[in-house]
Amino acid sequence: MTNEVLNIEGMECAHCVNAVKNALSKLNLNVKDVQIGSAVIEYDEKIVPRELIVKAIEDAGYEVK
After folding, report:
1. Looking at beta carbons, which pairs linking 12-19 to residues 24 or more positions away fall under 8 Å?
2. Alpha-carbon gap, residue 52 to 42, rounded angstroms
3. Is the pTM of this model over 0.90?
């Protein structure tokens, strides 16, 4: 399992936090914490490639740094 803190740009409020949580909850991973500007996740890269996680966040309107 991979533990990672993603730095996310464009998040400014609770709505943004919920949008990122919703995007990540659709993937097969463990969302440990989402705050403005970051998300802490645990995932198996063989099941959910990092690129898929980044794409889900970008599709929600935010940018992973």
Report:
1. 12/36, 16/62, 19/60, 19/61, 19/62
2. 14
3. yes
